[in-house]
Amino acid sequence: MGQKVHPIGFRLGITSNWKSRWLRKKSFRFFLQEDFEIREWLAKHFPKGTLATAEIERSGDSITVILRTAKPGLIIGRGGTGLEDLKKMLEKIVKKLRLGKRYAEGKWNLKLEVQEIKKPEMDAEIVAQNVASELERRIPFRRVMKSTIERVMQQKGVEGVKIILKGRLDGSEMARNERLGKGKIPAQTLRANLDFGQSEALTTYGVIGVKVWIYKGEIFADAQNQK
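The chain above was modelled as a monomer; its predicted structure follows.
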């Protein structure tokens, strides 16, 4: 039986970067829980198709949360009020964890940065969330897969896309998986710029898992130029 490797984790340090960028051996497990709680709250707070990833950087006593989003206006809010409220909520989550377990005591500050995704159709995480959102609205899964693949392949620079759905599709009694793709997806090539995203559609028949791969060509030539 083949072993499945996460496409992003497989390429860490080569073509992709870590989503949490910090190292603190003494409080590693506590900071790891902080990152998990922050990401979990953000995933529940924002609707599907809004927030792609939340990258977290730590330097000294400061925490920087970088939000990559396709809809920055929804996060920032009118006059920046949404961003201020979001910052207060994340500070409350971190403060509660630190007071409960008493680690990293002292002054600390949290910063928020918003990065706009100019082409959401080329971001696998956003595409997966959009597919899950359409499935929740009871749109037939084959129509969703075909229209999504056509929309992604129209983007300049995309050479391949693949979508896999798993669950009780269209309310069938037995769960199964359906896959549809176009172009090429070199899963074992380390220099391949392969983006991966996954999401879940909460339907009346149960949870349907969504996985999306988007291949944007090789970056071997760029790496050679940097050297």
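The domain at 120-226 is CATH 3.30.1140.32 (Ribosomal protein S3 C-terminal domain).
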